[in-house]
Specification:
Glutaredoxin, 4-stranded mixed beta sheet, alpha+beta, binds FE2/S2 (inorganic) cluster, about 180 residues, 8 helices, elongated
Amino acid sequence: MHEINAASECCCGCSGGDEKHEDLLKVINESKDIPGSLIAVLHRAQGMYGYLPKDVLYLISNGLKIPISEVMGIVTFYSFFATEPKGKYEVMVCMGTACYVRGAAAVLNAFKDELGIEVGSTSADGLFSLTASRCIGACGLAPVVSVNGEIHREVADDDVVGIIAEYTEKENQGGNN
Ligand code: FES
């Protein structure tokens, strides 16, 4: 079976040769003949890198012989894929039905406004990243916001400034959460 390798065929523009890169090439080579393997490969890559850098997306596109436009379409469709490094505090606003009907959209918009970022992005100081999630199984507490797994219950849009301040203050006091 013809295999890609970093030395001869990596056209992603990355430097190649490091351990993660070699591991990803292995995953791609194992998956390239399996139909529908793109999402699984993207998950593995995000697990290795913590996010999906552009050069990694090109490597996957090339290795699986899937157009980069299709790869980008999948990455942008699913909110659990990130194309930027995550912030120290990962803010997840639940947009499941129970949270949505109780005002989650306004909460999400308040986070966007206060942090100055869009969903899937990270604040300029690297502290906060913002995700819109599916139901996280705490519907009785809706609307729910999770920050690094810490649940904030019955959140209203005017609670958002205080939630951000809580973590910013932790950071100013030494960064322990
Ligand atoms: S819908 Fe938000 S926790 Fe279930």
